Amino acid sequence: MDKFTVLESVAAPLRIINIDTDMIIPKQYLKTIKRTGLGRGLFSEMRYREDGSENPDFTLNQPAYRNAKILVAGDNFGCGSSREHAPWALLDFGIRCVISTSFADIFYNNCFQNGILPIQVSPEDLEKLFDDAERGANATLTVDLEKQEIRGPDGGTVKFDIDPFRKHCLLNGLDGIGLTMEKASSIDTFEKKLAERPWA
After folding, report:
1. 64-92 pLDDT per residue, tens
2. Which of 1, 94, 152, 178 could form a disulfide linkage to 156, CB 3.0–4.6 angstroms apart?
3. 136: Cα within 13 Å, side-chain hemisphere
4. 8 Å CB contact between 104 and 76
5. CB-based burial label for 185 (10 Å; 0-12, 13-18, 19+)
6. pLDDT over 90 at 31, yes or no
7. Which residue stretches of the chain are H helix?
8. Each residue's pLDDT tens digit, 90-138
């Protein structure tokens, strides 16, 4: 998993509440267990018209936001079913950080397991961040995980809370496997002792 330290990017504004995982990645894309290639299906029912052409009105299709790595979204982001394909699709598109006032628990946990930082802010701070994001390519946000702050283009700062263990994992690029590998020498020692034990 890639480390998350400081991320500077244009932020794409998505002023929609209750964005569920089916909106993030519709069911027809769930046939794969690969984590790559899902970016094409991200928000596909909003990004594409029925004939397959791009919907120019959708945020991520607009030139300023095509390479956005940060998403500023409405309340209750990631609700609905527990599909892990949702963070996979965000990550494959290039989104490393989602900012909202609230997240569904399972989606929130899945983000950390996949190297995405979900940041919960107050409604007042979210509105400030929406204002920054809606300035398009003229404004970038900087997300500093170590300092736990979001810096706006005009010098404003929004602080955020994060669980210390999850912060450690993101800063060091550790998913569940990575955490286990950190204990590899202890595991090897235990297994050697186990092998030497006389079994009755």
Report:
1. 999 999 999 999 999 998 889 999 999 99
2. 152
3. 8
4. yes
5. exposed
6. no
7. 21-24, 44-47, 85-93, 105-113, 123-133, 164-172, 176-182, 184-196
8. 999 999 999 999 999 999 999 999 999 999 999 999 999 999 999 998 8
CB within 8 A of 36, min separation 6: which ones?
Answer: 92
Contact call for residues 47 and 61 (beta carbons, < 8 A): yes
Question: Residue 12: what pLDDT?
Answer: 98
Q: Could you tell me the two tokens for 9?
A: 């990017």
CATH architecture, domain defined by 6-196: Alpha-Beta Barrel (3.20)
Which of 132, 140, 84, 139 has the alpha carbon at shortest distance from 112?
84
**Full strand arrangement of the beta sheet holding 141-144:** 6-9, 141-144, 149-151, 157-159
The dihedrals phi and psi of 53, each to the nearest 5 degrees, come to: -75, 160
* pLDDT reading at 200 higher than 60: no
